[in-house]
Amino acid sequence: YVESLARSLQLRRLDLTIVPLRLTDTCTISVIRKALDTDDTLKVTQAIGWIEQMGADAWTDELTVLARHADAGVRRAALHALADADLVQDEQVTQTLRRALQDQDAAVRRAAVDGLGELTDVLIGDLRQATQDTAAQVRYSALQALARHGDTDALQQLELRLHDAGPERPLALAALAGG
């Protein structure tokens, strides 16, 4: 099995739709690790693809190193794997994506932007959830943050609360003034 998989890598062709692979068994993981350490960028990129298929969560360290690889295609694949996994809230991943915004290759920078967009989506979802918090100061801070980043619904909610004479009106005023 290992020899067949390694030979397929050497031939640079392996159709995963035909060959049933158990990507999480120790032999396959060993082959993937070897492929990540090779100078052959095609093998490295294929190994990153396998990592994406099995879930990149356990490969964060390897992918963040590969995000600084000499080859732009490898860097791009590593960034995509990091962004597609549920790792966008990981500080190491966020720093890797932010660092990639300075890459000389436009496709790598785009992969970084896509990954940071995933992070933004997660954070916006968290902020929207915080607008339902039981504590008024939390709700208004979340609304302020959302409004500051262009969320028109949050801005409308704050404006509506300005017309409310209740005890939360000063919080709405402060959120609008700070946003």
Walk me through the structure.
The longest helix has 25 residues, at 106-130. Helix 6 (91-100) crosses helix 7 (106-130) and helix 9 (152-162) packs across helix 10 (169-178). The chain has helices at residues 2-11, 26-36, 41-54, 60-66, 72-84, 91-100, 106-130, 136-148, 152-162, 169-178. Helix content is 69%, strand content 0%. It is elongated and about 75 Å long. It is mainly α.
Task: Provide tags for this entry.
elongated; mainly alpha; about 180 residues; single chain; 10 helices
Distance between the termini: 59 Å
> How many β-strand stretches?
0
The residue ranges in which pLDDT falls below 50 over 5 or more consecutive positions are none
* Helicity, as a percent range: 55-70%
Shape: elongated
- The structure class reads mainly alpha
What does the oligomeric state look like here? Answer: single chain
- Measured on Cα atoms, how large is the radius of gyration? 22 Å
Main beta sheet strand tally, sense and closure: none
Q: In percent, how much strand structure appears in the residues?
A: under 5%
